[in-house]
Design brief:
Elements lengths: L1 H8 L7 H21 L17 H12 L3 H14 L2 H11 L13 H20 L8 H18 L4 H14 L3 H4 L24 H4 L2 H4 L1 H20 L8 H19 L4 H28 L1 H6 L5 H14 L2 H15 L7 H18 L4 H15 L4 H11 L1 H9 L38 H6 L6 H16 L7 H14 L5 H23 L26 H17 L14 E6 L4 E6 L1 H12 L2 E3 H8 L3 H13 L3 E4 L2 E4 L23 H9 L3 H11 L4 H8 L9 H13 L3 E3 L5 E3 L5
Antiparallel strand pairs: 1-2, 3-5, 4-5, 6-7
Helix pairs in contact: 2-3, 2-4, 4-7, 5-6, 8-12, 12-13, 12-14, 13-14, 14-16, 17-19, 18-19, 20-23, 23-25, 25-26, 27-29, 30-33
Length: 748
C-alpha cells in the first residue's frame, strides 16, 4: 500500500511539458523573492521607498516555501547582507567623524549625534529585515536579527564603546531635578530604596540593536561611576549628620530609575534588575567605607562631634566586612601622624582614648581595638612621661572621673591569658581575633589605660605624687576637690592602695586645726602644711638660706607650734610654698604671689638697689640658674632691670621697649615616680655596665633578666627603661635602631 501511495504522488518526468512549466514557475518565484529580499541602500534616493508586498510577491514566497526553497533563499539573502554591510559601515563612519576622538571631556553634542546614529542603524535593520515578513516565519526574522547584530557589533569602530559610555553618562546626568536631587526624607534606609518613576531611555533603539547584551559592562560602569560620585559628594558634606541615608535615596531615585528605564517594557529584564539594586547598595557602602576609613584618624580626633560619621562607617563595615583594611589604614595613619617623637605624650594619650571610644562603637567586642591599640600601647610604654600623663588624665579629666563612679575595681595585674571556662556567660572569641585577645577583659577606659603596664603599682605611686603636689598647692587648707578625687579613685584602686593619700589628706586637716590654734596664741602670716614625712613622696632638699624677715616669721611660728606641741619641732622646707608680697615703690605698689626664693630676692633689694648675680648667690646659697630665673621673673613684673651685668631696682616704672625676659618655669617640688625609680635602679649601674661591656648590645628584656639574679633587685622592666633613657641623656649608653642598648665608652 505504501508503494502505491508513493507512485500516486510521483510527479511527471521533468522532461514533460507540465514539469517544465512548474520548474519555470519556481525559478521565476525564486527570482522574485531574491529581488524583494535584496538589501537596499537606504542612503540612495531610489531606494527610499518602502517595499510593497503585492499578491504576486506573496504567491512567490508561498511557492518557494512549498517547494522547500525558503531556507536557501534566506541563505542567499544573508550572503547579500554580508556583502553589502559595507554600506552600514560607511554610514556609521560618517557619524563617528562628527565626534572628536581626541577630546578629553564629553562632547556636548554626543547625545544628539549618538541618537541620530542609533536611529540610522535601526533604519538599516528595519529596511533589510522588513521584507522577511513575507515568509510568515518568525524564526527566520529572529535569525536575521541575531545575525544582523553580530555583523553590526563586529564592524563598529573600536572607539564606539567610549562614545557609548559618554552617551549613557550624559543621559544619566540629564535626569529630572526631582530624581537627581530628591526631597529629603527623615527616616533612615537600610538599603537603596526603589521609588519607581518612569524614565525613558536616551534612545529606544538601544535594545532593538542588541547594545545592552554586548555592552552591559559599559552600562554598569556608568551606574557605578554615578554611585561613586554620589558617595563622594555626600561624604564631603561633613561628619555632623548621617550621609549614607541621603546617598541611598539619591541612588534609588536616580540611578535605579535610570537603569530601569533602559529596559522599559521588558518584564523579564526588570525582574533580573532587582539583584542589581542590592549590588548598588553594596558598592555605595564600599565607596563610603573607603572614604571614611581614609578619614578615620581625623574622625577619631574630632570625636564626639563626628559621631554621625562613625554610625555610617559602622553600617558600611557590617555591609562590606573589610575589617582588616580598616585596621591597616588606621595603623598606617597612626604610624605617620601620631607614633613619632614630634607628638606630645598627652596628645598621643588623648587620641588613644578617642580611639578606644570610636572603635568600641564600630566593633563592640573589641577585636578591631585590640589590633589597632597594641602599637599605640607599645609606643606609650616606651615614653618616660606616659605614667605622669595617665595619672593627670585620671585626676584632672572630668570624663574619666565620671567613669570612676560607675566602673569596678581595676585588677592587680594585667595577666588574663587563661580563660575562665566556668563562666556561664563564656562565649568563643570572634573568628578574626588574635590568639591573645580576650573579650571578657575589663573594657572601661581607665582600666585600659592602667593595663598599659604590667601592674598598677606604678600608676598608684604616680597618683600619690600628683595628689601630693596638688595638696601642697592648696590654700586655706581647702582640699575638698582633692578629697573627692581620692574617693573616686578608691572605687577603682581600692582603699588599701590609696591609704597613703588618706594620710596626706589627714595631714591637711590636722594642719588646719594646728594653724587655727597657733594663730589664736600668736597671730602670724605663716600658714604651714605640717606633713608626715614618711607617708609623703620624696621631696628634694634645697640649700636656700632665707633672708632675716622671712626667717623671723618662721621662727615665731615654730616657737608657737612648739608651745602647743612640746614634743615636736617644725623643720621648714625653705624652697616650697608661696608668699603674698606687697612692694611699695615711689610711683606704684606691686602685689604678687611669689616663691620663697623670689621673696628673698625682693627683701635683699631693700638693703641696696643694685645687686650682681654672684652676690645674690652668695647670700642665698643657691645655684646661679635659680637666681637668674627669679630675677627674670621680677624683671617681667617691672621691678628690676639688668644693666651691664648688674640688676637695678626700678623705683619708678620704665618703658622697657618691649624687652623680653627669659623666665624658665621651675620644675615640680616633688620628684615623679620615674625620677625616683631611676635613682633606685642607678644602684645597679655597675651590673648593667659589666653586662654591656662583656656581652655587647643587649635588648632591655635581656638586661632585665640578668638583673633578676642580683639580690634585692625588684624593679620592673618599665622602671629599668626609664633609667636607661636617663642614662642615655647623660651620654652613658646609646640605643640602636633595633631597640638594643650599647655602652658608650667615653661615658664610663
Amino acid at each position: 500500500m505504501a508503494l502505491v501511495a508513493s507512485l500516486a504522488d510521483w510527479d511527471s518526468p521533468s522532461t514533460s511539458t507540465q514539469g517544465a512549466r512548474r520548474y519555470e514557475q519556481l525559478a521565476n518565484a525564486v527570482q522574485v523573492v531574491r529581488h524583494f529580499l535584496s538589501p537596499r541602500d537606504v542612503t540612495s534616493s531610489r531606494s527610499t521607498s518602502k517595499p510593497v508586498e503585492t499578491p504576486e510577491i506573496t504567491a512567490a514566497f508561498q511557492l518557494v516555501s512549498k517547494h522547500g526553497r525558503g531556507q536557501a533563499s534566506y541563505n542567499d539573502f544573508m550572503d547579500s547582507v554580508e556583502s553589502r554591510f559595507h554600506l552600514i559601515q560607511r554610514d556609521v563612519q560618517r557619524y563617528v567623524d562628527r565626534l572628536d576622538p581626541a577630546a578629553e571631556e564629553i562632547n556636548p553634542q554626543i547625545a544628539q549625534i549618538m541618537a541620530e546614529m542609533l536611529e540610522r542603524l535601526a533604519l538599516w535593520q528595519r529596511a533589510w529585515g522588513l521584507p522577511l515578513r513575507a515568509f510568515q516565519d518568525t524564526k527566520l526574522i529572529s535569525q536575521f536579527t541575531s545575525s544582523f547584530h553580530q555583523l553590526l557589533h563586529s564592524s563598529l569602530p573600536p572607539i564606539f564603546p567610549r562614545y557609548l559610555l559618554d552617551f549613557l553618562t550624559a543621559s544619566l546626568a540629564s535626569l529630572p531635578e526631582h530624581l537627581i536631587d530628591p526631597p529629603h526624607q527623615p527616616h533612615l534606609f537600610n538599603t537603596v530604596p526603589i521609588n519607581y518613576h518612569k524614565v525613558p531611555p536616551p534612545s529606544p533603539h538601544l535594545s532593538r540593536l542588541g547594545v545592552f547584551p554586548r555592552y552591559s559592562g559599559t552600562l554598569s560602569r556608568v551606574a557605578y561611576q554615578e554611585i561613586e560620585k554620589i558617595a563622594t559628594e555626600e561624604a564631603a558634606k561633613g561628619w555632623d549628620a548621617r550621609r549614607l541615608t541621603r546617598a541611598r535615596q539619591r541612588v534609588g531615585d536616580g540611578v535605579a530609575n535610570w537603569l530601569s528605564g533602559m529596559f522599559e517594557g521588558n518584564d523579564v529584564a526588570q525582574v533580573a534588575l532587582r539583584p542589581m539594586f542590592s549590588r548598588f547598595d553594596y558598592y555605595l557602602c564600599k565607596c563610603f567605607f573607603d572614604i571614611r576609613t581614609d578619614e578615620l584618624f581625623d574622625i577619631i580626633v574630632d570625636f564626639p562631634e563626628s559621631m554621625a560619621a562613625l554610625e555610617d562607617l559602622k553600617e558600611c563595615l557590617f555591609k562590606v566586612d573589610q575589617r582588616l583594611e580598616l585596621v591597616n589604614k588606621l595603623n598606617a595613619a597612626n604610624l605617620k601622624r601620631l607614633l613619632h617623637p614630634g607628638a606630645e605624650t598627652k596628645s598621643v594619650l588623648d587620641i588613644y582614648i578617642s580611639t578606644i571610644r570610636c572603635l568600641r562603637i564600630l566593633d563592640p567586642p573589641g577585636v578591631l581595638l585590640h589590633k589597632v591599640a597594641e602599637p599605640i600601647r607599645r609606643h606609650l610604654r616606651d615614653r618616660p612621661d606616659t605614667i605622669r600623663c595617665i595619672v593627670a588624665a585620671l585626676v584632672e579629666g572630668e570624663e574619666l572621673q565620671d567613669e570612676n563612679e560607675t566602673a569596678g575595681l581595676i585588677p592587680q595585674s594585667n595577666d588574663e591569658t587563661v580563660e575562665n571556662f566556668t563562666d556561664p556567660k563564656w562565649e568563643p572569641e570572634p573568628v578574626d581575633a588574635a590568639p591573645e585577645f580576650r573579650s571578657g577583659k575589663t573594657s572601661d577606659i581607665v582600666s585600659t589605660l592602667v593595663s598599659i603596664y604590667e601592674t598598677r603599682e606604678v600608676i598608684i605611686k604616680e597618683l600619690q605624687v600628683l595628689l601630693a603636689t596638688r595638696l601642697l598647692a592648696v590654700r586655706d587648707y581647702d582640699a575638698v576637690r582633692e578629697i573627692r578625687t581620692i574617693e573616686l579613685l578608691k572605687l577603682r584602686f581600692g582603699e588599701n592602695a590609696l591609704h597613703v593619700c588618706d594620710v596626706m589628706v589627714k595631714d591637711m586637716a590636722d594642719s588646719k586645726r594646728i594653724d587655727h590654734h597657733v594663730q589664736g596664741d600668736a597671730k602670724s602670716v605663716v600658714h604651714p602644711l605640717v606633713i608626715s614625712r614618711m607617708f609623703w613622696p620624696s621631696i628634694p632638699s634645697s640649700s636656700l638660706h632665707l633672708t632675716p624677715k622671712l626667717q623671723q616669721v618662721q621662727q615665731q611660728y615654730e616657737a608657737a607650734f612648739h608651745h602647743f606641741k612640746p614634743d615636736k619641732h617644725l623643720r621648714f622646707m625653705q624652697h616650697i610654698g608661696t608668699a603674698h608680697i606687697s612692694l611699695e615703690l615711689e610711683d606704684r605698689v606691686v602685689e604678687v604671689e611669689a616663691t620663697p626664693l623670689q621673696a628673698a630676692i625682693a627683701e635683699l633689694f631693700e638693703e641696696k638697689d643694685t645687686w650682681k648675680v654672684g652676690g645674690l648667690v652668695e647670700r642665698l646659697e643657691v645655684d646661679q640658674g635659680n637666681v637668674r630665673n627669679a630675677l627674670a621673673w621680677w624683671a617681667g613684673k617691672g621691678v628690676v632691670k639688668e644693666r651691664e651685668g648688674t640688676w637695678v631696682l626700678l623705683e619708678r616704672a620704665e618703658d622697657d621697649g618691649g624687652a623680653v625676659h627669659a623666665f624658665v618655669e621651675e620644675g615640680p617640688v616633688i620628684e615623679s615616680v620615674d625620677e625616683t625609680k631611676a635613682e633606685q635602679v642607678r644602684v645597679y649601674w655597675n651590673y648593667i655596665k659589666g653586662a654591656l661591656t662583656n656581652l655587647g648590645p643587649l635588648p632591655l628584656e635581656r638586661i632585665q633578666g640578668m638583673l633578676g639574679y642580683v639580690d634585692d633587685y625588684d624593679q620592673t622592666v618599665e622602671e629599668l627603661g626609664v633609667f636607661m633613657h636617663a642614662a642615655k641623656r647623660e651620654g652613658m649608653v646609646e640605643q640602636r635602631g633595633d631597640g638594643s642598648w650599647v655602652l658608650v665608652t667615653d661615658g664610663g
